[in-house]
Structure formats: structure tokens, C-alpha cells
UniProtKB/TrEMBL annotation:
<protein>
    <recommendedName>
        <fullName>Phosphate transporter</fullName>
    </recommendedName>
</protein>
<feature type="transmembrane region" description="Helical">
    <location>
        <begin position="136"/>
        <end position="159"/>
    </location>
</feature>
<comment type="similarity">
    <text>Belongs to the inorganic phosphate transporter (PiT) (TC 2.A.20) family.</text>
</comment>
<feature type="transmembrane region" description="Helical">
    <location>
        <begin position="308"/>
        <end position="328"/>
    </location>
</feature>
<feature type="transmembrane region" description="Helical">
    <location>
        <begin position="334"/>
        <end position="353"/>
    </location>
</feature>
<dbReference type="Pfam" id="PF01384">
    <property type="entry name" value="PHO4"/>
</dbReference>
<keyword id="KW-0472">Membrane</keyword>
<feature type="transmembrane region" description="Helical">
    <location>
        <begin position="219"/>
        <end position="238"/>
    </location>
</feature>
<dbReference type="GO" id="GO:0035435">
    <property type="term" value="P:phosphate ion transmembrane transport"/>
</dbReference>
<feature type="transmembrane region" description="Helical">
    <location>
        <begin position="107"/>
        <end position="124"/>
    </location>
</feature>
<feature type="transmembrane region" description="Helical">
    <location>
        <begin position="7"/>
        <end position="24"/>
    </location>
</feature>
<dbReference type="GO" id="GO:0005315">
    <property type="term" value="F:phosphate transmembrane transporter activity"/>
</dbReference>
<keyword id="KW-1133">Transmembrane helix</keyword>
<feature type="transmembrane region" description="Helical">
    <location>
        <begin position="44"/>
        <end position="61"/>
    </location>
</feature>
<keyword id="KW-0813">Transport</keyword>
<feature type="transmembrane region" description="Helical">
    <location>
        <begin position="82"/>
        <end position="101"/>
    </location>
</feature>
<keyword id="KW-0592">Phosphate transport</keyword>
Length: 422
């Protein structure tokens, strides 16, 4: 019994470490566009997001119950060692994608880790495949598409409503709207992602006999998970904030407002019905949709392609790492110790690698000089059916130039660059 208690304690600490990495990995979801447009300073933005993530953790437990009694069958012989191995796989994938600056899904890293470790230790009987399909895979495909389409429509409507008005006056209003919508996204993130760690800790307590099956998370679990994700959020995942705010498309205040409002709506709706979706995928889809929604806007499809590739690889990659960790952890105390030592060493190596080219609040809005990317096929198709920008340049350019070149994007890009340096 003493061994079980110690092991459960190790699992709880590891789960809170994952929650911490989830916090700084996903800060970009709420604050990347707000920071990139200058609506809020970097430090102020992450502090506000941290507080609202903490508040959101107390608003619902539906997603936590999906984790603790949904994708993994708690009555199939799952042991704390399995959960520990799953968390190790999720943490390492989170850190690797953070090092690369890719906004991959912390949620899918967790799901992949738990599924991979369970398959190795228990087999298919330990996994509820129907719930994985209904509550993980289908939302993973549908949510970013829905959020992207909503953001694209909202962006077009926003620019249409502001037509003929002074740009500086409308920019101030949209920056205020961005702050409000970013706060809503942060609150929504707390209601979804903080609960995933609550669910894992609750699952560990159930498998260790400390809680009855189908129990809700105890209050101390809710508080500790909320504090861990809030602390991680406050530290800021600056590498991913740079990618989300500057690497996918050039975001202007109206686009940022539309993207964040659409993302918050999708996340809150999913939390209400217990869908443990990826907030990262939702917010990234919204940013791409907002980029497509502005006439002359260009989505950098090379960056978006790398991001989508990371999404596809997250479940199997985290599962493979967790499966290997589960094989070792199943050997007993020495195996669990070996997994812990290897995990700490790997985390330290990733941190050391990140210090070679640090990104923080002082340089998060700086973008490395890269060759200009041509308009992608999707962007060109969207622009082809959109009304051409008003003015002599559009009139003189002709239909071919309106699609193949981006003259209207140049002033916006220039103004964005000027704003980022002021």
C-alpha cells in the first residue's frame, strides 16, 4: 500500500508538470494575435491569460470526466505506472514541439500518451475506441474547420461593416474587442485544458483505490490543476506565440478580434458537451480563417503545413514514446525510476537547446528575414471570388494580377511592420 501511495504521488506530480507545459505551450491560443497587433503588451497579456485560465478551471468538470472515465477504461486493470508512462510521452512531445515553435496539440499529446501506454500494458481492452472516435478524432477534424470558416466569415463581415470609416478610429475599437475576446479564449481554455489534468489525476486516484469509480475530481485536484496551468501560462510560450502571431499570416486588429471570438465560441461549446478537443487546433484554424478573410491577406502555407504535420504526428508520436516508457515502467520500481531519470534528462537537453536561440517577451514580435512566399492555391482561389480592392491599383492590374500578385497586401504589411517597431 505504501508503494502504491508513493507511486500515485509521483503520477500526480508528473500530471501537474504536464499541466504546466500545457499552460506555456497554449498561451499563444489566447494571446498571440493580441500581442502581435499591439493590443496588449506581452507581459500584461500572459498575466491576464493566467488569471482567467485559473478561473476557467472551476467552471466545469465535463471534460475531466471524459478523461477519467471515457477514453481509457478505468476497470480494465490500468495501473498508476501506465498513467505515468502516458504523461511522460505527452510532456516530451510538448517540449519538442515548443522547441520547434509549432502550435501542436497538448491535448492530443496527452491522449496519445495514455492510449499508447495502455495498449502496451493492457491491450485493446483498456481503450474505449468508440469514445476516442466520437470525442477526440471527430472533433479534431471538425473543430479547426468550423473555427476557420467562422473566423473567415466574421473577418469579411467586420471589414464590410467598417468600410469607409477612419482606420485609426476602428483600430482602437478592435483592439479593445481583441482584449475582451482574448479574455474569453483564456477562460474557455481553462474550462477545457485544465480539466484534462484533473481527469488524469482523478484516473490515477481511482486506479490506486483512493477514489471510487466514476468519481468527480476532488476540490484539491481542481485547485492544483488550475494553479499549474495558470503558472505555465504566465511564463509564456514565446516561441509558439511568435509562430501563431507572425508566422501564419499578418494579423490586423479586426482579424484578431474575429479569430479569437470564433475560437472562444467553439471551445466553450465543446467544453459544455464534454468534447476534449484541441484548443490549439481551434485557435490555429481561426487564425488561418482570419488570414483568408481579409482581401489581400496571405496565409503562409509552408508554416501552416508544418503545423498540420505536427497535428497528424502528435497522437502516434506521443503514443510511441509512452509505449516505450510503459514497457520500462512495467518492470517494477527500477523501471519507473529509469523512466523518470530519462525523462528529466531529455527535458534538460531540450531546455539547453532552446537557450541557443532564446525567444522571450522582448523579441517575440520579431520575425526572421525569409524569402517572400508566393500566394498559395487556396489563397488565390479565395481572392479570385472576392470583390477586388477599390482603388487605381486594382483597376489597372486586371483580373490575372489580382489573383497572382498581392498589391493590396503591401500597405497592410508595411503598416503592420511599422506598428510592430513603434
Amino acid at each position: 500500500m505504501e508503494h502504491i501511495t508513493l507511486l500515485i504521488g509521483i503520477v500526480i506530480i508528473t500530471a501537474l508538470v504536464f499541466d504546466f507545459t500545457n499552460g506555456f505551450h497554449d498561451t499563444a491560443n489566447a494571446m498571440a494575435t493580441t500581442i502581435s497587433t499591439g493590443a496588449l503588451g506581452p507581459r500584461t497579456a500572459v498575466a491576464m491569460s493566467a488569471v482567467l485560465n485559473l478561473v476557467g478551471a472551476f467552471l466545469s468538470v465535463e471534460v475531466a470526466k471524459t478523461i477519467s472515465g471515457g477514453i481509457i477504461d478505468e476497470g480494465s486493470g490500468i495501473r498508476p505506472e501506465v498513467i505515468f508512462a502516458g504523461l511522460v510521452g505527452a510532456i516530451l512531445w510538448n517540449l519538442l514541439t515548443w522547441l520547434a515553435g509549432l502550435p501542436s496539440s497538448s491535448s492530443h499529446a496527452l491522449f496519445g500518451g495514455l492510449i499508447g501506454a495502455t495498449l502496451v500494458s493492457v491491450g485493446m481492452d483498456g481503450v474505449n475506441s468508440d469514445k476516442i472516435v466520437m470525442k477526440v478524432l471527430i472533433p479534431a477534424v471538425a473543430a479547426p474547420i468550423v473555427a476557420g470558416v467562422a473566423a473567415m466569415v466574421a473577418t469579411r463581415l467586420t471589414y464590410r461593416l467598417a468600410r469607409g470609416r477612419d482606420d485609426q478610429e476602428t483600430a482602437k475599437g478592435y483592439r479593445a474587442g481583441q482584449i475582451a475576446s482574448a479574455a474569453l479564449v483564456s477562460l474557455a481554455h481553462g474550462t477545457n485544458d485544465a480539466q484534462k489534468t484533473m481527469g488524469v489525476i482523478t484516473l490515477a486516484l481511482i486506479t490506486g483505490g483512493a477514489l471510487a469509480p466514476d468519481s468527480d475530481p476532488p476540490l484539491w485536484v481542481i485547485v492544483s490543476a488550475g494553479l499549474a496551468i495558470a503558472l505555465g501560462t504566465y511564463l509564456g510560450g514565446w516561441r509558439i506565440i511568435r509562430t501563431m502571431g507572425k508566422g501564419i499570416t499578418d494579423i490586423q486588429p479586426p482579424q484578431g478580434f474575429a479569430a479569437q471570438t470564433g475560437a472562444a465560441t467553439v471551445i466553450l461549446a465543446s467544453s459544455h458537451i464534454g468534447f476534449a478537443l484541441s484548443t490549439t487546433q481551434v485557435c490555429s484554424g481561426s487564425v488561418m480563417g482570419a488570414g483568408l478573410g481579409r482581401k489581400g491577406g496571405v496565409v503562409r502555407w509552408s508554416t501552416a503545413g508544418r503545423m498540420v504535420l505536427a497535428w497528424v504526428l502528435t497522437l502516434p508520436a506521443a503514443g510511441l514514446v509512452a509505449g516505450g516508457a510503459a514497457l520500462l515502467a512495467d518492470q517494477g520500481n527500477w523501471g519507473v525510476t529509469a523512466v523518470a531519470v530519462i525523462a528529466v534528462a531529455a527535458c534538460a537537453a531540450i531546455w539547453a537547446a532552446s537557450r541557443r536561440k532564446p525567444v522571450d517577451h522582448t523579441n517575440v514580435n520579431e520575425v526572421e528575414t525569409v524569402p517572400a512566399e508566393p500566394v498559395g492555391v487556396v489563397t488565390a482561389a479565395i481572392q479570385a471570388v472576392a470583390p477586388p480592392p477599390a482603388g487605381p491599383v486594382a483597376a489597372a492590374a486586371g483580373p490575372v494580377a489580382a489573383v497572382s500578385s498581392t498589391p493590396s497586401a503591401t500597405p497592410a504589411g508595411a503598416s503592420a511592420a511599422t506598428g510592430s517597431t513603434s
